[in-house]
């Protein structure tokens, strides 16, 4: 049984990225996966403060807060799913805090401290067309590769205002992806 960690970052519970996350969660559970889900807007904690304790006195981020708990869950999961709207060229700060703390997941030589074999999925919804923000998934893929995550998938829901999520075919693609990776 695979462990799936789903992180959402939209303050709109019924919004597109949360709907994508729910479609992934439902399909993963049907495949028998154990799913843990965090709404990063409700997780208390900070991004990386560059204290360097993870390099000098510990082998993991030393900040003890909600984001640290999510990092611990990431260490123990098989599949990381991040669902987010695209705002101002990136994902919301609620998710970025978690990503910043990845700094503590590699050593000085950028060798990952995570167990091998993890997969990652990025679910994005944006108002702009497909030609906009094309590099966003590639940036996250590169960061995840530094952490040793070799299998990466991205699903983008573009033109969200004119292309309703439930009519777009995106949810079906998300569910199919969940069946594959979970």
Task: Look at the structure and give the CATH class.
Answer: Alpha Beta
Shape: globular
Mean pLDDT equals: 96
Q: What low-confidence regions span 5 or more consecutive residues with pLDDT below 50?
A: none
Fourth-tier CATH superfamily name = Flavodoxin domain
Derived from helix and strand composition plus strand pairing, the structural class reads alpha/beta
- CATH architecture call: 3-Layer(aba) Sandwich
Distance between the termini: 8 Å
For the secondary structure, the number of strands is: 5
Query: What fraction strand?
Result: 15-25%
Number of domains: 1
**Can you tell me the CATH topology?**
Rossmann fold
Report the sheet with the most strands, covering strand number, pairing sense and barrel closure: 5 strands, parallel
Instruction: Tell me the strand order in the biggest sheet.
Output: 2-1-3-4-5
Specify the oligomeric state. single chain
Approximate helicity band:
25-40%
N-to-C SSE string, H for helix and E for strand: EHEHHEHEHEH
Radius of gyration: 16 Å
**Total number of helical segments?**
6
Summarize the structure in words:
It is a single chain. The chain has helices at 16-30, 53-56, 66-75, 93-100, 135-146, 170-181, and strands at residues 3-8, 34-39, 79-85, 119-125, 151-157. With 182 residues, it is α/β, with parallel strands linked by helices. The protein has one domain (3-181): Flavodoxin domain (Rossmann fold). A five-stranded parallel beta sheet has the order 2-1-3-4-5, with helices on both faces. Helix 1 (16-30) runs parallel beside helix 6. The chain is globular, with a radius of gyration of 16 Å. The mean pLDDT is 96.
